[in-house]
Amino acid sequence: MKKIICLLMTAALILSLAACSGNKNGNSASSIAVDDSSKTAAETTVTTNDGTKAVSKAELPKTEGVDVDLTKMSSTMVYSEVLNMQQHPDEYTDKIVRMKGPFNVTELNDNRYFACVIKDAAACCSTGIEFVWAGEHSYPEDYPEVNTEITVTGTFNVYSEGNSKYLQLKDAEVVF
Predict the structure, then answer these.
(1) CA distance linking residue 132 with residue 124, whole number of Å
(2) Backbone torsion region of residue 123, taken as left when φ is above 0, otherwise alpha when ψ lies between -120 and 50, otherwise beta
(3) Backbone dihedral angles phi then psi of residue 130, each to the nearest 5 degrees
(4) What is the pairing mode between strands 126-133 and 96-108?
(5) Residue 64 and residue 6: Cα distance in Å, rounded?
(6) Helix count and strand count (H, E) for the chain
(7) Is 79 strand, coil or helix?
(8) In this structure, what are the phi and psi dihedrals at residue 44, rounded to the nearest 5 degrees?
């Protein structure tokens, strides 16, 4: 059942990305990259009407002790960074990530999965990253209500269940 839901969520994500990534004039493209020093850099390539290209790199804000701080980025940059995490998870493994968004919980096969939801600037496309709260916590008593704004800081991890890989922030600190 979890595999089917994962496949459906993946298909929905792909379709939503196709809908959100439309570039009507074809003049620009953006990508996010993580360099070897654990700092996050944004690289934007712009192609003008005459065919020339310009590349700009900007250091994204980094909070002390946090390798990737999504709370300091615009909603478009956050969504792009999370997409990059999904496409290149090995580049983020064991890095400290901080994110902010609505709290969500999913129950599948007698398991509960807690997530921080990330939306793009137009709020048409959303994805989430699961987190495992450090310490002993009981649901629902210790957790916020669904859709409550939370900030989660944890160690980025990839784990497998069956043939599928999942992203999570483990040993997470949760503030709401």
Answers:
(1) 26
(2) left
(3) -65, 150
(4) unpaired
(5) 34
(6) 2, 9
(7) helix
(8) -120, 130
